[in-house]
Design brief:
8-stranded antiparallel barrel; 124 residues; mainly beta
Length: 124
């Protein structure tokens, strides 16, 4: 079963990195506000570069002067099932973690650029 991870990242600005396994990599988004497990409560999600699968277990400090410098801790982790993968429009997953559980959606903003999405829990 593919995995997902949410890492709390105390970089220049506190944010949460949402990542899920797809085709041997971790597809990744930076979310400025803590992800919500409440249906329909939307969060901005900015797509960032894919990460290697090993990154899913990383907790520690990225040294000053390096990209993403700051403390990283695992906020949530578990398995996921990809229901729909159309990164030009919409991505849907079933997430089973300690904190996040259920069907979640990444919905791309059509006019705001290809890296801007909304992340939210959908009705079952």
């Amino acid at each position: 079963m593919p995995i997902f991870v949410v890492q709390e990242h105390h970089a220049s600005h506190l944010h949460w990195d949402f990542r899920f396994e797809h085709e041997g990599k971790l597809k990744s988004w930076a979310i400025p506000k803590e992800p919500s497990n409440r249906v329909g409560e939307k969060r901005l999600a900015i797509q960032v570069e894919d990460h290697d699968l090993e990154w899913a277990n990383f907790e520690g400090v990225i040294p000053e002067g390096e990209y993403g410098a700051g403390r990283v801790s695992i906020w949530d982790k578990g398995s996921c099932e990809l229901l729909l993968y159309d990164p030009s429009d919409k991505i849907e997953l079933i997430i089973e973690g300690r904190r996040l559980k259920g069907r979640f959606v990444l919905l791309r903003f059509k006019r705001a650029g290809e890296k801007m999405f909304l992340f939210f829990k959908a009705r079952e």
